[in-house]
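Re: your question from the hallway

Yes, I did run it. Sequences:
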Amino acid sequence: MKVGFIGLGTMGKPMAANLIKAGFSLKVWNRSQAPVQDLVALGAEAAKGPGDFAEVDVLASMLSDDATVQSVVVDGGAQASLKAGAIHLNMATISLALAQSLAASHQQQGIGYVAAPVLGRVNVAEAGMLNILAAGQGEHLAKVAPLLDAMGQKTWHFGDQPAQANVVKLAANFCLASAIETMGEASALVQAHGGSGSGFIQMLTSTLFAAPAYQNYGAMIAEQRYQPAGFKLSLGLKDVRLALEAGEAGQVPMPFASTMKDNFLDAMAQGDGDLDWAALAKVAARRAGLG
Amino acid sequence: MKVGFIGLGTMGKPMAANLIKAGFSLKVWNRSQAPVQDLVALGAEAAKGPGDFAEVDVLASMLSDDATVQSVVVDGGAQASLKAGAIHLNMATISLALAQSLAASHQQQGIGYVAAPVLGRVNVAEAGMLNILAAGQGEHLAKVAPLLDAMGQKTWHFGDQPAQANVVKLAANFCLASAIETMGEASALVQAHGGSGSGFIQMLTSTLFAAPAYQNYGAMIAEQRYQPAGFKLSLGLKDVRLALEAGEAGQVPMPFASTMKDNFLDAMAQGDGDLDWAALAKVAARRAGLG
Amino acid sequence: MKVGFIGLGTMGKPMAANLIKAGFSLKVWNRSQAPVQDLVALGAEAAKGPGDFAEVDVLASMLSDDATVQSVVVDGGAQASLKAGAIHLNMATISLALAQSLAASHQQQGIGYVAAPVLGRVNVAEAGMLNILAAGQGEHLAKVAPLLDAMGQKTWHFGDQPAQANVVKLAANFCLASAIETMGEASALVQAHGGSGSGFIQMLTSTLFAAPAYQNYGAMIAEQRYQPAGFKLSLGLKDVRLALEAGEAGQVPMPFASTMKDNFLDAMAQGDGDLDWAALAKVAARRAGLG
Amino acid sequence: MKVGFIGLGTMGKPMAANLIKAGFSLKVWNRSQAPVQDLVALGAEAAKGPGDFAEVDVLASMLSDDATVQSVVVDGGAQASLKAGAIHLNMATISLALAQSLAASHQQQGIGYVAAPVLGRVNVAEAGMLNILAAGQGEHLAKVAPLLDAMGQKTWHFGDQPAQANVVKLAANFCLASAIETMGEASALVQAHGGSGSGFIQMLTSTLFAAPAYQNYGAMIAEQRYQPAGFKLSLGLKDVRLALEAGEAGQVPMPFASTMKDNFLDAMAQGDGDLDWAALAKVAARRAGLG
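Structure:
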């Protein structure tokens, strides 16, 4: 199987490297050239441009947002270059609207389309231990399964409409943001009464909430350590907005998401957009007159 | 050390039993007599009334709410019966206002007061594996430590003002409610787009949110199994209200708690007050036109 | 008809004066003596204490809040001093719970009880132009009607349960707070895009929202003129809390009220509790990074 | 002055007719032909298409939403057909993003652009009594002033950036929605305690809230009369979303708007999208278990 890979950022590069390690023949493209050279050193072939994937059976892409997907995959010719019967494996976190539009346009073009956004940060991607949220037609999922197995510890299936995987990804990110906001409000409550926010979070994340999401963000909140940003607050705002847009499309009131969007905007307005999105907890503290 | 124990409900009875097993000499009282007899059979002495604890060094109480604490401990004479130097170990989940009032009145009376609400349900209490959230003066905490060790797996200290432990307990219950609401909204989003709510929750609670709180309530939401109630929705409403009252006392805006109180009221108005509080998730589903 | 009047504050004093002007024989009591002397100069008799109203046919009271009503009317003996068949006309803004409790205790004592909170500030009270929100039994309402006519421009009837008038008063104050919050958010939106908040409010309150509530508070918001306080923000918080408590008693979700309580707490935490409650609009502005 | 007019719907047609009555020479276009013929009967000239406005000095347009403006003005060639120095007077309620984009593209083309959305419904438009919210460069505003005077009772100026008028229009519509939600929650509170919702609204809109917005929508809520729709709930959702988008662009948290969007979605999910947007009040009632 000949595989293409577009988007060699902090996530895409280790994911592509894991494909090479697993023995796949890889052709890669990236806007900047440095990561391309790194992968060529590992055995990949460099594409001449985003439209140079006519021979691949599967084109994986890991681009940062809707605008980049639009400019590279659609306007840049990546999709158009694919041969009949090829599959585009889109692993980016994108909006429901774009996901639905891409699913339709790929079908019209006679090529497969699988959405497979991932859970996990850079170190998890490097270890090939991502959790992968996949949706698409059964035969397409079967074809890309070996690739997903090389990049992740487990592939979760969420339906035959590709966009369903994107909704699940947005729902999962909403849950992460919600965990941050929850700890932010709870810590502020404890601190306002003279208690230790970090002591509270230590207890919480050692007992009922002993899970990676709470432990990771809880430690940041307890230490008020919001730099360097693992995931910027401005991107957190974007993801919550995407969840709300998906909610609106499905007529789903999401009051927690709405509350968080307002709090993210508050944080942005105070100049905290470049901090880690765990800094959402600063809003609760500031509004309570703490810190 | 002579120990008294008041309140032998579903939680209090196994907690008292664990004290007996650990070798403490116990004198017990309960409004209804059946659990008293069960503990007498284990070796406890039956008190003649709530005011019959003049000889104990520590009086533990595990009563259901503010009104019961007021009627038994204050009006019923339990507190007044204690000798100088005795300690009242109050393990109930009560309001910040009552906690502060009790701390003051015990001090005035010249007796110790430790607040030690617990995390864990009946089976955890039976196993002596509770997490205990304690606050009070150091000497008082030291004196009750052997009792707490017999009832729990770990005692967490949250300050020298007893009410601080109550705030932490309310903050923890707020986090639990928030986890329920979060999964309710996220599931509704996934389902509105044709996905499987239970598949989503299965994934979520196996990965980033693999913690008891999410797994326990996630399973109930996924299966829409809200009876029998482990903890009634009407009690969940009460605890969120207590968290909001503590927030108001400390001038802490808690928009998640406010949102949930409205949703709990919605559930109550639809007649769901006797379901498990995980049925808060029904509100998100119904508002989205699902099920 | 012999009339008593308790509570000669900024509202009560002009209301009592209007009763004297209308020819009623008045006996008055107030915690501080200065306003008593002013009314004696107008022809009133001074009571010896809050319990010195045995001969009156109607006892009107205009006290500031639940605690004062409790301490003067209940604990202070005013209610107990009334003769069989007398009517207590309670014009204070109090909680639903206290209103219900007073209605029950008066009935038990064999005396009438009418709740008649008012709309209007001091200048309106002086002019005898209050709008009066009344509830109680028909015969009681009929008996106090001449008094209400002397104090207000119109009496609105809201049911035969006295507490219903209190609920209407809380609902009306909720609407006022909501108008403030609405203008605060809308002004922030306009200003954030370089527009004039005051120009916007000028237009708004000259057209679709040309009503006293919007014009009064709109002008304060436009000019950011929050001192001296006509009605303190801390009291606004209290009234919104009372509305929420009434909502909880009736199982009515009130998300606007919940949002405002959080915003009031935010304002309190920033030290704005003594400003006019129109300063709720500062919260929206500050959160948007304005001013 | 030669004037063009595009968009002869329920609002546009009487507005155009008022221009003719005021003596302006009018050339008109509409997607459907019936209103064109009506205006030709009044003396207007029929354009051959949306791109047939090369000779006009001012082209007024009153189209229903972003998509229609895009398809007629941009894609349909209306804007492109204008001669150098002409002015496009866009009176539609559109998004901030489209407003900014149109301002930029008109400037680039060397033609003027004035945004002038209106307040008022059909009968107000017919009477030439609209309130017009205008923004743009001073010379452009001066040139279109006679047209605006013929269509409205007053023109309010909101800055030299055309989009500022659109923000003001979105802010005003947000205030209307907020008035509906406020009355909905307050009525539910009163009714839940056995009071009369209509009696409450009658009092409210006769006193503190005696303004057109409250009286108009208050009557509909009191009578639960949501058909025929003067303005559909689905369009209300759209306008609140546009306000939120403008808020996000300006980093303005708008918790009331967020709450309303969720409530609008609730109403949509229950099938009430075609009712008048005053039916937002049904959500508060239903959530409280009323009606």
